[in-house]
Amino acid sequence: IMAARFVDAFTDVTMGQIVDRSKLTKDGKFKPWIKRMCGPVAIASFLIYQSGFANMPMGFRIFWMFVTYILWGSIFYTSINIPYGSMASAVSADPEDRASLSTWRTIGATLAGLVIGAGTPVFAYVMVNGQSVLSGPRLTLIAGVFSVLAIVCYLLCFHLVQERVEVPQNKGELDISAIFRSIITNRALLGIIAAAVLLLLGMLGMQGMASYIFPIYYNMPVAQSVATVASSVCMLAVCAPFAAKLAARFGKKELSVVSCAFGAAVYLICLLVRPKDAMTYVVFFSLAYIGLGMFNTVIWAMITDVIDDAEVRNGIREDGTIYSVYSFARKLGQAFSSGMIGAILTMIGYTQEVGLNPGAHLDIMERVFDWSCLIPAVGLGAVALALMMIYPLNKSRVEANAAELARRRGV
Questions:
Q1: What is the pLDDT of residues 313-359, one digit of tens each?
Q2: What is the pTM of this model?
């Protein structure tokens, strides 16, 4: 995974430059990439989940995972994710509109996560000797269905979204050193990257440990689906309706600091209470999701704020480049999260044997529970600190930047 991320560093920034230098078409500057790449990214995703290779030699399996992961994550996903994420600037120039766009993007992601998180455990697990076990063939079939649905959603996005703001093509000479200097001196970008990576470590660690807490620690895999549904309901019923309004009232940075600190506190309380039943743990899981969900709902609008801030300072619009750097940082966070969970489980002595017979290894399972609380608590607490200490775009500065750009454009 880490080797793939080094490839991502090149492909993300390259794609960002390609997007910034793309010409306007009748469909806009960003939308055409969604139509071009929706098929390849869905096919590459499906190729990753080929359980038929489970009995092949280890060398072949590593090769297959590396190649398909590079095709999906580093090439095809990048070629559709960078223009999609950069497109908010072309949809509207109003900061409040962008906060609304960020909310709806989160709603869409939450609905997709609800289908995946709630539906997959129900169909992908089978019972073997009284213990739930993941079925490879079922997972392959599910991956195929999701790939088809992904193409449908991408095409809907292409046909339903309109680019209203003309984002000019970057025709300047390509200067790699200047791009690098701009990135490392952009405090707003560095701050949002730090917060995003820490958020992913907390959120993906939280979700990753759920695969050990619910089906193994509590021996109740259906509770994992319940937790996914409950957290999604919290996102849709609490975060989505109120995040944009609270951000407009208090500021996106200010809202994010408070909400992430709240999520960290919830998990610290869970660690102390140590609930004995799965459903009580679901309650803590869902409450913490409200904390991280508020930040996750407005983060996409915060990226656009960073792009605006860079334009105010440098006089150059670099939507694709800035978003590509942020996207690469998120991928690093995902990779660190995957490696982190594996390293922690190894450190505490968790093995496949423990998973098949957890009752005989209660001490190890208690340590699994401890880390299921500590990972999100530390991650979300660190997000709040990163936003307070590094990220400079508070409410007043965002509004000042928007007014300055409107003045320059004669709006």
A1: 887 778 888 888 888 788 777 777 767 888 888 898 888 888 878 87
A2: 0.75
For every residue of the chain, which 3-state class applies, written as one string? CHHHHHHHHHHHHHHHHHHHCCCCECCECCHHHHHHHHHHHHHHHHHHCCHHHCCCCHHHHHHHHHHHHHHHHHHHHHHHHHHHHHCHHHHCCCHHHHHHHHHHHHHHHHHHHHHHHHHHHHHHEEEECCEEEECHHHHHHHHHHHHHHHHHHHHHHHHHCCCCCCCCCCCCCCCHHHHHHHHHCCHHHHHHHHHHHHHHHHHHHHHHHHHHHHHHHCCCHHHHHHHHHHHHHHHHHHHHHHHHHHHHHHCHHHHHHHHHHHHHHHHHHHHHHCCCCHHHHHHHHHHHHHHHHHHHHHHHHHHHHHHHHHHHHHCCCCHHHHHHHHHHHHHHHHHHHHHHHHHHHHHCCCCHHHHHCHHHCHHHHHHHHHHHHHHHHHHHHHHHHHHHHCCCCCHHHHHHHHHHHHHHHCC
Low-confidence stretches of the chain (pLDDT < 70) are 1-10, 131-132, 171-179, 182, 338, 411
287/231 Cα distance (integer angstroms): 8
